[in-house]
Amino acid sequence: MKKALIAVILASSGLSFAHAVESTATWKATAKKDSTSALEVTALDSLAFQYSDGSKAFNTVNGLFDVSIKGDASATDFTLKAKKLSGTLNHLSGGSTVDVGVMWQGVPVSTSAYTTLIDTAAGTTGGSLAPLAAGFKDDTQSTTAQGAFSFNIEKATVNGADAEFNTLPDGLWSGEVNVEFVASWA
């Protein structure tokens, strides 16, 4: 009897390992080439936030972008500014949203005013974007640099009312974060 019982236990425990779970990852993808514009900004990666039950918050994500400018030999100053145009993600089953915040070197990039990334007259060279500040007069070739914004989930709603992150439904939120860049040569 003991041998039969052991065999049954081993057989049933073997069945529990046969359970498989699948998941699919999806990337939005586009390809674009623009070698004639005076300013071209390209987002280099997508943003994926994960909720942590321990911290009751979503993680912060760095989003790389590439900037290319054509210089103006007659310019004496150059500015590059950014403003968040949109950043609301909608829950796939509806009823809930999360808003994505954008930060540049610790400064919020708002929807109401432009944030200065580079201002050569004021001595602001833009950190990793410094090659643009140095090459804004070069009209013989494009000058490029790579920067990164920090993105975070700032706030959430459920049925139109503000909500704590831990009260959000499980699932996936989807949408776009759009940041406008404005370059000026003076």
From TrEMBL:
Keywords: Fimbrium, Signal
Family matches, as Gene3D superfamilies: Fimbrial protein EcpA (2.60.40.3290)
Pfam families found in the cross-reference section: MatB
Main location: other
Signal peptide start and end residues: 1-20
TM stretches of this protein: none
Places the protein is found: Fimbrium
InterPro entries: EcpA (IPR016514), Fimbrillin_EcpA_sf (IPR038478)
Source organism, top-level taxon: Bacteria
GO cellular component: pilus
Assigned protein family: Belongs to the EcpA/MatB fimbrillin family.
Subunit (UniProt): Self-associates. Forms filaments. Interacts with EcpD.
Name of protein: Common pilus major fimbrillin subunit EcpA
Gene name linked to the record: matB
